[in-house]
Amino acid sequence: MSGSVVAKRYAKAMFEVAMEKNLLDQVETELTQIVETFSASPELMEWFSHPNTDSAQKKELFSTLFKELNEITQNLLFLLADRHREGYIGEIAAEYKELANEARGVAEAIVTSATPLTEEDKQQLTEVFQQMVGKTIHINNVVDSDILGGVIVQIGDRLYDGSLKTKLVRFQERLKGSRVG
């Protein structure tokens, strides 16, 4: 079974239980903290992935590292330890966040720009794209000087490319197409 399918199943189950118990935000925060902890310590993830590390050791360390987790998140970690799937925690957290955002009517927008966006730029983009997609928009700005100018906005599977680089490429293609031999 592919990793994304596994992650989606766990995330969906977590989401449903969290919604039922009204713990959507808390579970999301806890999953984020867990992912950040693993990201900060690759050695920790390596230890969890080692074949000689048994489930009981993993659960004990989870209990020590993450003392304040609610029952839902703790049960997920224990289940992942039992099934040797702790490596999926990052994907599970990302899938869970998508489900939670969908339930809240929120969309994540990845906005690529040549220079960092100002707060005013972010506000203007938020207003425009909230009307287009009918959801509250949270902007994550990615700086890429290769686009030269303008912005590229990705919301879910939609891509809005207003970069200067793309406009120049299209202009060049039109020029090539209109040449008379």
UniProtKB/TrEMBL annotation:
Signal peptide region: none
Spans traversing the lipid bilayer: none
Broad class of where this protein is predominantly found: membrane
Coiled coil feature spans: none
Keyword Transport (UniProt): yes
PROSITE patterns: ATPASE_DELTA
SUPFAM superfamilies: N-terminal domain of the delta subunit of the F1F0-ATP synthase
InterPro entries: ATP_synth_OSCP/delta_N_sf (IPR026015), ATPase_OSCP/d_CS (IPR020781), ATPase_OSCP/dsu (IPR000711)
Keyword Ion transport: yes
Membrane-topology annotation of the record: Peripheral membrane protein
Molecular function, one GO term: proton-transporting ATP synthase activity, rotational mechanism
Key words, A-Z: ATP synthesis, Cell membrane, CF(1), Hydrogen ion transport, Ion transport, Membrane, Transport
Pfam families to which the protein is assigned, alphabetical: OSCP
CC per GO annotation: plasma membrane; proton-transporting ATP synthase complex
Gene3D superfamilies tied to this protein: N-terminal domain of the delta subunit of the F1F0-ATP synthase
Protein location: Cell membrane; Membrane
Listed NCBIfam families: ATP_synt_delta (TIGR01145), PRK05758.2-2 (NF004402), PRK05758.2-4 (NF004403)
Family to which the UniProt record says this protein belongs: Belongs to the ATPase delta chain family.
Function: This protein is part of the stalk that links CF(0) to CF(1). It either transmits conformational changes from CF(0) to CF(1) or is implicated in proton conduction. F(1)F(0) ATP synthase produces ATP from ADP in the presence of a proton or sodium gradient. F-type ATPases consist of two structural domains, F(1) containing the extramembraneous catalytic core and F(0) containing the membrane proton channel, linked together by a central stalk and a peripheral stalk. During catalysis, ATP synthesis in the catalytic domain of F(1) is coupled via a rotary mechanism of the central stalk subunits to proton translocation.
UniProt-recorded name of the protein: ATP synthase subunit delta
Encoding gene per record: atpH
